[in-house]
Amino acid sequence: MERNDRYIPGVPCWIDTTQPDPDRGAAFYAELFGWELEDTMPPGSPGKYYVARLRGEDVAAVSSQPEGAPEGAVWNTYVWVEDADEAAAKVSAAGGTVLAEPFDVGDAGRMATFADPEGAGCCVWQAKEHRGAAIVNEHGTLTFNNLSTRDLDGAQAFYGAVFGWEIIHDSMWALPGYGDFLEQRNPGMRAGMADMGAPERFEDVVASVSLTPDAEPHWGVTFAVDDTDAIAARAAELGGSVVVPPFDAPWVRMTIISDPQGATFTATKFVPANKDLPGR
């Protein structure tokens, strides 16, 4: 790990979306979030990998679909690990399925993809030159990853074994020690969270989890936005669809959007005044 890394093992560090038409996907997100996109694949490559940047910093990517991948667009979550091969072995031992064995992504890093016992897909990332998203929690950047599952106890057993996560408050994944890392990077962080009335151990939270008995288990992504209603309206103008119209929820105003090729994501504006609202 480099001294200025923003991540430690067990923390989601990167997202990308695989799209049947990556050019169309890149155009949509460029207009929606103001991303600048660069295809980083060598000339003549069969696929494209558009890295999205804000202020010159990497925030996400839009990719062609890998050969043999299921049809349809989807957002993918990557979790930082020290050793992708070791992580893949832990997945198998815990009852998950390794969908793509560990492989090198040029000089960028080493990765593997897997499905948990319920079938939710995820990736692990062993960083080399690519050190994850450089900006988060700002407009047009990642703010949260969420697991939708039909089995909270099973999810706790699996992700606890693979990443050391714990479910707290029935809705959050906590990584012991993550708060210590964040406090070192940003002294006073814990006090600030306490002043806002954040839940206990929120500084250790790395993702969220929700029990969704009637939905296909999956990992989802949430983007921070400055204006939830404006983003929903703009997404519709650009050919996307608003799956769930903007509504107020604890701490946020949020909406669920599907891009023109079907990849679904959540957009939220942080609204501290909403902290005491009941969940939906």
Q: Compute the gyration radius: what is it? A: 18 Å
- Tally the beta strands: 16
Summarize the biggest pleated sheet. 8 strands, mixed
* Terminal-residue CA separation: 39 Å
In the CATH hierarchy, what is the superfamily of the largest domain? 2,3-Dihydroxybiphenyl 1,2-Dioxygenase, domain 1
Cα shape: globular
Segments where pLDDT lies below 50 for 5+ residues?
none
| Beta-strand content estimate | 35-45%
Helices and strands, with pairings:
Elements: E1 12-19, H1 22-33, E2 36-39, E3 49-54, E4 57-64, E5 74-80, H2 84-93, E6 97-105, E7 109-115, E8 121-127, E9 141-149, H3 152-163, E10 166-168, E11 172-174, H4 178-185, H5 189-196, E12 205-211, E13 218-224, H6 228-237, E14 241-249, E15 252-258, E16 264-270
Parallel strand pairs: 1-4, 5-8, 9-12, 13-16
Antiparallel strand pairs: 1-5, 2-3, 3-4, 6-7, 7-8, 9-13, 10-11, 11-12, 14-15, 15-16
